[in-house]
Amino acid sequence: MPMPDKFVFVCINQRDPEHPRPSCINSGSADLFNTLREEQGRRVATGVKIVAGGCLEACMVGPVMVVYPDNVWYGGVIEADVPEIMDHLEGGPPVERLRIGDAEFDLRPEQMSSGGF
After folding, report:
1. What is the pTM of this model?
2. With respect to CATH, is domain 6-113 assigned 3.40.640.10?
3. What does the domain layout of the chain look like in residue ranges?
4. Which of 19, 75, 78, 116 is 20 to 30 Å from 26 at the Cα level?
5. What is the pLDDT of residues 36-69, one digit of tens each?
6. What backbone torsions phi and psi does residue 21 show, to the nearest 5 degrees?
7. CB under 8 A, 24+ apart: contacts of 72-81
């Protein structure tokens, strides 16, 4: 198998249920990770490595994933989005409707803005 050209890190972080920020795993990221891996296998996309990762910090718009070296961040991804994302990973354009940026990283629950966590 050749060295991958792209790496996709999928947040599968799970926090304490009392934490004010949501956990990507509770938003379906484990199933998303598995669906990505299955689609990668179907396409025999050997230039792509799908990696289960920890928190990527844009928790309010999870599930979150990032594609490197493209530096493309996706949020609110569902399993139905996987074919479009795989098209990107195989050289197509990023899926613009799923892209997130600085604004999504600044989102915080009210409890976090007023102290606490």
Report:
1. 0.89
2. no
3. 6-113
4. 116
5. 999 999 999 999 999 999 999 998 899 999 999 9
6. -85, 140
7. 72/99, 73/99, 73/100, 73/101, 73/104, 74/98, 74/99, 74/100, 75/99, 75/100, 75/104, 76/100, 77/32, 78/28, 78/32, 79/28, 79/31, 79/32, 79/35
